[in-house]
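Moderator note: this is an archived Q&A kept for reference. The question asked for a predicted structure of one protein chain; the sequence and the answer are reproduced below.
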Amino acid sequence: MIDSMSDSPVPVDTSDIARLKRELATCRAELQALREEQRTFAEGISHDLRAPLRAIDTFAALVEKDPGLGEDSRQHLRRVRAGAARLGGLFDALLEFSRAGRADLRLQPVDLGLVAEWIVAELRDAEPARDAQLVVEAGLEVVGDERLLKSLMSQLLGNAWKFSRDRDHVSIRVSGERIGGRLHVGVHDAGCGFDMAYAGKLSQPFQRLVGSEQGGGHGLGLAIARRIVERHGGRLSARSGPGPGASFLFDLPAASAG
């Protein structure tokens, strides 16, 4: 016997739908307020802390010019100014980390190959004495937020450049492979590499894969890169050894073929 009730529509409680819509609107409003609060907090801290930092650097520079100052004192002042510069770099990284998580995505076609060449050209201009080679595979077209993707490549290529400092030659290769609707990208270097036992630190802000004696910085660069990749629906991973060098692998939405 056929159950005559099996095809009957399930009654819908319109009051439940209305309640869920109100809750969704409330969550969206709270999320937007939280993003705005993060922006105000990050930019406020950066502004309020930069002013005394600039004063420290300025007065240290003035004292350093005193002709009666001994060499030991000059060395101390140089350390003060170097510390101020590192702290300024940390402020910049904190702001970028905040922006990477809250900025609205403006999606458009982006050629990662051109972005990589532009960034490495800037690195060469800053250190023209270094012998460097960049190899970029063809077809690295993706869809994403251009400003964020420039930041992503800047973090990864800057790492490759920095951690090749003890090498006679800087060698960087950017590869890509399209799988379905995603482009899987690799940034490979021949630098000092890192111990894979600590690769889990990659996703943690203020953690470093190598020590400061090998060029380790503020520990936010790879966290910024990971956040940007995740905003584009992808995943960032790292691989190193055996042998020198490291590879940073991530995936982004691929641009339409043709």
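Archived answer notes: The chain has two domains: 14-102, 107-253.
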